[in-house]
Amino acid sequence: MSEYILETKGLTKKFKNQIAVDNISLSIRKNSVFGLLGPNGAGKSTTLKMITGIMKPSAGEILFENHPWTRKDLKDIGALIENPAIYPNLTAMENLKLACTLYGLPKMRAEEVLNIVGLEKSGKKKVKNFSMGMKQRLGLGMAIINNPKLLILDEPTNGLDPIGIEDLRELIRSFPSKGMTVILSSHILSEVAQVADEIGIISNGVIGYSGKIKKEDNLEKLFMDVVERNRGEN
Predict the structure, then answer these.
(1) The pTM is what?
(2) Which of 42, 69, 70, 99 could form a disulfide with 62 if both were Cys (CB 3.0 to 4.6 A apart)?
(3) Which run of H or E residues covers position 97?
């Protein structure tokens, strides 16, 4: 049995004459946190959208649990990409209960998740009255409602205050012990360095580094080296 839950092989995405993601090959170990680092516009979100089926690859292959990815695999994948898919006129609890219905889960799962993401005191409040940080928390709750094997988080700390960021960090670190693999994308090096077991650095659509983080590594230098090396290649 493969030690990887997800592998991409030569993953490529073209928009007319522009190559947004260029021949990316990644291997994500089961029950780990993988950090996808890169500057804004590097191709992080496009890569994650292909993995979650939002976008169709122009070329390449995606393997999930050692078989070619199909839409059936979405039942085992949770994702928070860009704006959370939540209904502003419903309460937090109503949004989560609706997600439970879609997945065929018992309604008590909504209450469990509300506690996990720290919104237990705001469950009856309409989402349109939420702060950006509270919406992010609810979005995370929607992403983990089905207890996914793979959780994909794209810039999840947007709108969170320092306490919220620390809480999220601890939450992310707890997921692998619960059988959940996490792919965390960010342009903030320190955010990823504190939670990731391995990282991939993407710049200009190209993966310039992929591997484990060592304490002696100068992550900022490694990041800048990759960015400079791939600047202007496409």
Answers:
(1) 0.91
(2) 69
(3) helix 92-103
